[in-house]
Write a structure and sequence with these properties.
This protein is mainly alpha-helical and 163 residues long. The termini are far apart.
């Protein structure tokens, strides 16, 4: 079973699994291990595995290479994305994904966002507030009608505006 898990993970997760396998063989299956020691080792492994899985809960990196500057520099393309997330127009695959994650990102402080996604969102928010305030207000009306997130993230919004 441990060998099968290697196929599903890569990078740090694979390293963790390999280290876990060594740990398991070295301590759990050793004849001198006491039942108490085996239980504590199993609990430790379970906790570590849970932490690794929690860390891996990020949005897909599939669209991290999108040229955000090209999108915000093209009024027609930017308007299409805004219509998409406002559910007033057709969506591209990346637009659908963005729309699907907006509420979760707002609720969690973008905790599942990659570094590239956070940087892209800062650029887009800056552009919308400075260059397309009507679109920004429409997005706020849809996703934050009570201005809960505007108040929650006011420091981040101010830092975006200072850029």
């Amino acid at each position: 079973m441990i060998l099968c898990l290697d196929m599903a993970f890569s990078g740090p997760y694979l390293h963790f699994l390999l280290a876990s396998r060594i740990f398991i063989f070295k301590f759990i299956f050793a004849q001198a291990a006491s039942p108490f020691r085996m239980k504590s080792i199993l609990i430790t492994i379970a906790v570590l595995f849970t932490l690794v899985l929690a860390e891996s809960e990020k949005y897909t990196e599939k669209y991290d290479s999108l040229d955000i500057d090209a999108i915000i520099g093209n009024k027609r393309l930017m308007a299409a994305y805004v219509r998409c997330v406002l559910e007033k127009g057709k969506c591209t695959p990346e637009g659908r994904l963005l729309k699907a994650h907006i509420t979760d990102a707002l609720q969690t402080g973008c905790s599942k966002c990659t570094i590239a996604q956070k940087g892209g969102m800062r650029k887009v928010i800056h552009h919308l507030i400075k260059e397309e305030p009507e679109a920004w207000e429409a997005l706020l009306d849809k996703y934050d009608p009570k201005k809960v997130y505007v108040h929650k993230y006011h420091h981040q919004l101010n830092s975006v505006l200072e850029e």
